[in-house]
Amino acid sequence: MSTRLTPSEDFPQDLTALGLSEVEVLNSKIHRELDYEYTHDGELSMETEVRHEELTEELERRDQQPESEPVQPDVAARRLS
Question: For the chain, percent helix, then strand, then coil, each to nearest 5?
Answer without folding.
Answer: 65, 0, 35
